[in-house]
Each structure stands twice: as structure tokens, then as C-alpha cells.
Design brief:
It comes from Bradyrhizobium oligotrophicum S58. One of its GO terms (molecular function) is oxidoreductase activity. Keywords: Oxidoreductase. This is Opine oxidase subunit B. With 372 residues, the chain is an alpha+beta fold. It has 3 domains: 202 residues, FAD/NAD(P)-binding domain (3-Layer(bba) Sandwich), CATH 3.50.50.60; 60 residues, no CATH class; 81 residues, D-Amino Acid Oxidase, Chain A, domain 2, CATH 3.30.9. 29% of the residues lie in helices and 25% in strands. It has 8 helices and 18 strands. A 6-stranded mixed sheet has the order 8-2-1-12-18-17. The protein is globular.
Length: 372
Amino acid sequence: MHPEIIVIGAGTVGASIAYGLARRQCRVLVLDGDDRDHRAARANFGLVWLQGKGQNMPAYQQLSRRSVDMWSDFASELTDLAGLDLQYEQNGGLAFCLGDDAFEKRRSDLQRLHNQLGGAEADWRMLDRSELTRLLPNVRLGPDVTGASFGQRDGHANPLQLLAALHAGILRLGGDLRRNAAVRQIAPSEAGFTVAFGNEIVSAPRVLIAAGLGSQALARQVGLEIPLRPQRGQILVTERLEPFLPLPTSGLRQTREGTVMIGATHEETGFDSSATATAAADLSRRTLRIVPGLAEAKLVRQWAGLRIMTPDGCPVYAQSQKHRGAFVALCHSGVTLAALHSTVLADAILAGQLPGSLDIFHQSRFDVPKAA
């Protein structure tokens, strides 16, 4: 196989784009790293989420909205091709508020973002405690819960099934997926770029770097400086319970199998991805303020992962000006943006030019001149 595009990174972001390229009959080679890599996809909460995104960058809200609106068709097509159920549901989602101040702050934050977006009809609303109780008849809420915001477009999916389906889809469409293929070097060449991994060197006219936290060093080899940092997120999982939580929330999600996912922390701990007792206690304490009945549930698993964070928390999409044909795609919302990545971004990379609508996500937004 002589690839047209080499995708470095087979997590949710890289795999979504590679799947989209393969759907367009592009010869794509996908290079997955090794088991020592910090894989954000393994610790994903599985939300397909819109409400509240883009507080500091309304364009991020608009980008997420486009993807969320594509998700149903995306999930159906991928399920049919890969034969794996993504367990996608889009019945809305909740963000609980603990106390009157938190309720009013949530309302104010969402209204401010709504106003920045230019007056489109709101797809969220605030629910007081009585409305929330009617919506969740099988949940005994803790006394501190004053209400919640409800996002009409929000939903959730199984993130591991999504990743497995993307990998299966790439292969069924004729793509090449290499495991344990950590990239050592990217070098410009007459053919475009040569990529060295393992004992192999492969050439292609274009290369996409979507290697999560490993992208910073790789992007530098093609003239792109991307400021990134890891952020640890920890999640707890309970035993299987009878269905009681019909909607996903920003910190609680009952899976189709009945387990309840509890999360997630936001910790600035560098590359330390270990799970801690302190985080388990903090997550448990907050959860019991919301649903005291979960005190009887057994915790069966705890894990930690590292998010890919830019300085403003928003994605980076860029093409190298020095080495045209080298692209980078990075974000920490790979599940939510998967549908857009497999369509809009795949089309742009195949065409060799990112659309102007993505200019705001170029990493040059971080190039603030230093004071003299």
C-alpha cells in the first residue's frame, strides 16, 4: 500500500478522521502508538455534549453544535459498517446545581454564552428542584440539589465501542492500521513526508498528527509549535444497578449495562496518571450530595487518564505553513466532535486546505507578544 495520507494517532480523534478519509476512498495508513502511551480515549466519560461548551470561545460551541447534529447519522452509518452498537442516545443531559448560588451562576453562564451566539433559540433550560424531581422519578435527590440545567441536544455513547468501531470501519474500508507503531521521526521529502516507526519508513504526500499529548514533539518536526499540557481526570464505576438514571449528567452516567460512572476530576498533576484515594473520596462525597442512595452501591473500578489540554481548553486545527501538507488536530472532546472530524475535517485534509471557519482554532491564537 502506498498511502495518500498517514495519520499518526489511533485514538478517537485520529481514528475519526482516518475513518472519514477511508470512507472517501483515500488510501490511509494509521499508526497507533504502544501501550505506554497516555491514551485519553481509554478514560473517556462518553458524553456527546453541547451545553456550556465555548464559554471563552463561542466558535467552539458552534463547532460542537455542528458535530452533535451530525451524530445520529454518523452513529448509524458506523454501526452498520462495523457491526458494533455505539449505544448512542440523545435524550438530553443534565448538569446538577448544588445550592442557590450555583443554580444562578449556571443560569448566568449559559445565558451569557447564548447571547454571544447571536440570539438563536435556546436549546437549554433551567429546571428547579420540583421539575427535576418529576423528570427523574426514580432518583431521590439530596437536599443540596436546587435544580439543574437541561441541554436538549446532549447525549452519550459507549466510548470504547466507538473507538473499536472506528478501527473496524477503517479496516473494512481498506485502510491500514498498524499497532505498536510509535513514530520516531517525520521528515519532509520529495514525496511529501517520510515517517519512521519501528523498523519501517513510509512516505506519503500528507501527514496528520493526532497523537494526543505526543503531538507536541511530533508537530515541532514539521514547524508547528503547539502548547499542550496534560490534565488528569479520574473516574469511579459502580456495580450494575437497576436502571434509575435515564439521562446522562456532567458527573454521573448510568451505562446500558447498569453500571454508574462517576466523574471526573480536573487535576494539574503533570504526566502522573495514577488513581488516588483522595480523588475517590472527593468524587464519592459530591455524588452522595446529589444521589444519597448510591451510598449502598459497591465501587468496582477506579481509573485515571490524561486529557489533552491547550491553554484555553479549545481544539487546535492547523496546517504547517513551512511544510504544506502536514496537519495537526488536537482536542479533549474527541467523542463529541467525532462526527465533524469524520466529515468536515476529513474533507478539508483530503482537499489539502482547512476551511476559513477553522482559522480561529489555529495555534497562533496563543502567540501573545511578550512585554518588553
